Structures are given as structure tokens and as C-alpha cells.
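Table S2 (continued). Query chain:
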Amino acid sequence: MTEPVPIFQLENIGLVKGGTRILSDISLDVRKGECLVLAGENGSGKTSLLRLFNRLDDPTEGTILFHGHALREMDVRELRSRVGIVLQGPVLFDGQVRDVLSRIRTFLKQDWEVKDVVEAAGLPMKTLDRKTSDLSGGEVQLISIGIVALRNLEVVLLDEPAAALSITAIDRLETLLCSLLEKGRTLIQVTHQVDRMVNLADRGIFIEQGRVTVAGSMSAVIAAFGRS
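Corresponding output:
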């Protein structure tokens, strides 16, 4: 039986920014419906790699294919309607949460209800009546991920989604990510919380100085942290 074409194929990817080499010789496939973790120490290049998947940056070397087609040739708006990203430390507009979510829904041309976002984020409904300026960083993170979760995306990209979260909020996040995987979404996540990803992630890669040095099980990725 013929193997399906990977949703993403990266071939000999390199990235140079401002004269500094960030990534070198990265080749990997991302399979539809899997959770792939990008791990590494600070400054290793993992967030830079994540940004390439929906063209926040383009590689200076190599090729990225999306469903077998060159990513660089895709219309950016079309791509981002299929591949969404939540960067670390997201920011919401000022105002009441209910009104802000309504504005975002209109801008994104979505048909979800504002309460659906709060429910997906695992937050109490009274959150809708609060000011966004009064929310914690973790609450903003969960709401931002909730918005992305409700969009009809193929791929969700997450940059350190648990960085500002309490233990309870991390549990909510894991529930949300599990629900996305159950719906067949593909998740690519940058994280330092590798021990929390053992049961959720299908595979992981470990990046050192812009190069993939380990690719495989989460146990292999965790072991790489001990060697770095």
C-alpha cells in the first residue's frame, strides 16, 4: 500500500537572518494528524523553524512542500487559512473579553460563538465580562489557543504554549490539544515541557545550534536534554 504524502516535507532547509546562520540542513516530514514536538535549548532555532511552516519567514536554502506543493508558491492568506499559529506571549485587543472576541470572530469570518472560545480554553464563563487588561498571561494564552482551535485549520502551530500556565492550566491545555488530535488536526509544538508531552506527542526532534541532532521518540528527546 502506498504511503500517503506527508502534509509537510522539509528538504535541506537553511535559514540565515541578518548575516547570522539560524538553521542548517534540516530535512523532515510531518504526517497528517500527528503531534510533533520541536525541542531544544534557548536559542537553538526551534521557534525559527516553527515560523517557516506558515511563512512568517521563508528559508534561505532548501524547499518546504505542503501536500506535495512548494510552500513558497502558495498564497499566504490561503496558507494561513489552513495553517494557524499561536506565538509565545500573544496579545489581545483592549476591551471587554466578550467584545474583543466578537471583533476577532468578525475579522476572521468565523461562525463560532464567543462563549465557545472560553469553553474551549477551559475558563469560566464569567471571563467574558472581564477586561482583557485584567487577564493573566496564561489566560490570554489559553484564549488565543481556543480561538485557533475553533477555526477549521489543518495544522496548528504552537510556540511554548505552556510557558505562562499554571499546573491546572496546563491540564486544560492538554485536554484542548487532545481534542484537536481527535479531530484529525496536525499539531507542531515548540516546548520545554517535554516530560508533559510523552503521552500526547507522536514524535519529537531535538535541535542544537540550528541542526536536528535527535529525531524519534519523546524519550530520546528527553535524553538529549541531559546530554546538551
